[in-house]
Amino acid sequence: MEIKEQTATAEQKETIRKLHNEESKRVKISAYLIAAVVCIGATFVIRLKPFNFIGSYHQLLNNILYAGAFSFGILIVSRFVQGQIAKGSLEKGLLYNLIQFTRLVTFIIIVFIFISFLNANWYTAAVSLGLISLLLGFALQTPISSLIGWFYIVLRGPFKVGDRIQVGSFNGDVVEINFLDTTLWEFAGNLMTSDLPSGRLIRFPNSLIFQSQVYNYSWQKYPLVWNEISFYITFNSDLDWVEKKLRIITLQQLDAETKEHVQDMRDHISETPVDDIDIKEFPFVNFRIHENNWVEVVLIYIVNPKHSSHMRSKIVKAAITELLREPEKVSFVAEGS
């Protein structure tokens, strides 16, 4: 299963689809508006004589109704803002994050409204909110850290849905980013020796990004990684011919888009302080002397990280087939040597 870049999950698509549904939008806004009017109307009704039995609870009920009316007004504004965000031209994953952020802010504002109306004294309300926050901070340290981690992911963007990443010991393609955790479709892991999906999902708290390094193999400016293939030949092989032949074979297997990224890589390096790296011909072929007096040939090329296993197999099959056709130019190390 390949996770495409910039691809939204089913949950994200459904959320955005509902916000685009004009009929559903009108129904919800109308319901919020009616509820707000009912709350305001109820404040006048409870002042009538039949409700005198409420007694000392009259003011409390009145404050709750006013808080409800204001809250429904905030929900109307929030619904409108979410609809405008859903109409944006940004990729689905980012739109979903913005919508979730709007809902979170809406919830916080509504909580603050109720606390304010239930405490006539603002100082008392502030102290109450401070004490509640302090208690929740101790009791919910990990969830709060994960929520802050979600803010960091959304604002700083170390990765997004569709990226192939490594966080700590977890490797996978990002399929979902929620308030408290991130879900990966694992590749490699302890079940596989290649860069193929293992079939398992990994769910880790967002707070982990503050404790571990984040490796992104799908960086937007340069969405490719370096791979290498090594094999052994004897000293009497024609090294210049081997180098030239391997470069030709590799270029035949790589697609045009991958080849174009070589120039992008040169441009990115030239814009950084690391200007002493000289990217010459591509792909590269390096030779090393093995401890058993063989020549180790190392073929280095760039590839989409999600296609690395497939591309490695194609290059190996093509290279072995071509090199075996010229036994006078190259000889491999004998089996069992």
TrEMBL record:
UniProt KW keywords: Membrane, Transmembrane, Transmembrane helix
A Pfam family assignment: MS_channel_2nd
Transmembrane segments: 29-48, 60-81, 93-118, 130-155
Subcellular compartments: Membrane
Name of the protein: Mechanosensitive ion channel-like protein
Gene Ontology cellular component terms for the protein in this record: membrane
Membrane topology annotation: Multi-pass membrane protein
Family statement: Belongs to the MscS (TC 1.A.23) family.
